[in-house]
Amino acid sequence: MTTPAIRATGLHKTFRATDGTEVVAVDHVDLTVQPGEIVAFLGPNGAGKTTTVDMLLGLTSPTSGTVEVFGVHPHHAVVEGRVSSVLQTGGLLPDFTVRETVRAIAALHGRSDRTDVVLERANLGPIADRLVQACSGGEQQRLKFALALVPDPDLVILDEPTTGMDVGARQDFWDAMRADAAQGRTIVFATHYLAEADAFAERTVLMAGGRIVADGTTADVRASYGARSINLRPPTDVVGPHGVDEAWLARLRAAVAPLGITDLEVSSASLEAAFLALTGATPSTDEAEEALR
Amino acid sequence: MTDVLTTPSTEAPTAVRTRAARPQVLAYARLDLRRQLRDRVGMFFIVALPAFLFFVFGMGDDEAIGSANVAMYVMVSMAAYGAVTATTSVAGAAATEQTMGWGRQIALTPLRPLAFVGVKTAVAMVVAAVPIALIYAIGAATGSRGNAVDWLASAAIAWAGSALFAIYGLAVCLLFKGPNAAGIASGLIVILSFLGNVFTPMSGLILTIGKLTPLYGYAGLARYPLSEGYLPMDAGHDPVWLMLANVVAWTVIFAGLAVWGLRRGRERV
């Protein structure tokens, strides 16, 4: 039997808030990830994703419970270069260049030989001599990704890795990750974009309020998260600048009520869908972006 | 489109690898040092400002003081001020790096926290040597006069003693978090330098109060080889123990504040 990439048992973490009350960030989480899996940590902000990631990396100690990465304490896995991460809250030094940043972290890993490889891998070659402070949010995110590749890890943990990337860069990023995963790297990523989990992960762990509320194939989790919805486009003459005509909506409600439809929600087209339609890129899923609430 | 990330993967995680490569601490320190020396604004306050103050306050003044001349006395003071600004800003920046997130990147490497402190101390001490070397060179060229012991001992004391202000910079930046903390720490050094009798000789009540401030003991010790504790303008004499007591007391205070700031920062994680 192979050693799991991640084995967490009864993982629990509480913080003391400024007013003295105890806040439960992660509530008795059990999780096992096998080598080679691609797992999405899906959940809204405040679901406990980042705290869980911190414990998986040994940056924070659990209040109770245990966590092992490749059978050892997370910190040892970090020291051995078996796990690395793109941190949501990790900072870069603004007055290093892109190349110096990679060289600095590569030196600390004792892997200076990796500098050029990861620069190329994250396609940072053209901007290698640019100061970090002159890089866009998406470029900085790619630099963090390059840093995560320095130790050539077996497990990469990505915390909201596409923050700051535009839609096209986000898709390129996931294409690159997919290629990586095909080579056998284990990938765990936290996201609040259902579409990212949907497009990329084989398995989705849905977190809410510090607990795992669903864990299974992404298709199953999507089904349990909510039934499919049907979009329809009203005739243009009932749509004004202030929305859809109320009288027409009332008639629609009355018309569909006999079919057992109880919830009728009016929403505007998602920005991402509109963006992709306008820029000619193809959305990776039918619902381009569906942030969880 | 420039944001392309689709370089084909040519590397696969290998099952068996030689693990536990050792951190190349020197390579990191070299990069960090270069980054520091490249910071024009920072280096202005560390090197150019004290050199300018030396020019204003007594460059070439040949009036005798102790075993040297006034030019030398002012030169040591200004070199000490530059060195202190250097250690304060490097240590302060180190603390800010930690609280602003770079520390989390470092935490994901095999580097031990103590080794990180060692790297930063080494960088701070190298940067501190820059204003001392430069201002002593200017002094030598413009008529600062003293015997060999004056030159060597004062430089050594100014350099070694500036380490105290690395602790100071650390403490201030751990207590006042945020990107402005290092600026606050360096700014306070200017005020403390006036009070510490570093810029212009003081007398009366301000001098009495000044003797209790953190730069007084350090600057006095750096000048001791030439002044033997006598203050300019017949303002009196300081015994060595007073200046040593000043340095020891402030070391304890700054270290205590730094530890307190560190603990406070951790609780808020």
From TrEMBL, chain A:
Alphabetic keyword roster: Antibiotic resistance, ATP-binding, Nucleotide-binding, Transport
InterPro entries per UniProt: AAA+_ATPase, ABC_transporter-like_ATP-bd, ABC_transporter-like_CS, ABC_transporter_ATP-binding, P-loop_NTPase
A Gene Ontology biological process term: response to antibiotic
UniProt-recorded Gene Ontology molecular function terms: ATP binding; ATP hydrolysis activity
Organism: Nocardioides currus
Any one Gene Ontology cellular component term annotated for this protein: plasma membrane
Location(s), subcellular: Cell membrane
PROSITE patterns: ABC_TRANSPORTER_1 (PS00211), ABC_TRANSPORTER_2 (PS50893)
Gene3D superfamilies cross-referenced by the UniProt entry: P-loop containing nucleotide triphosphate hydrolases (3.40.50.300)
Protein name: ABC transporter ATP-binding protein
Lipid bilayer topology: Peripheral membrane protein
Domain ABC transporter intervals: 6-234
Primary subcellular site in the record, as a coarse category: membrane
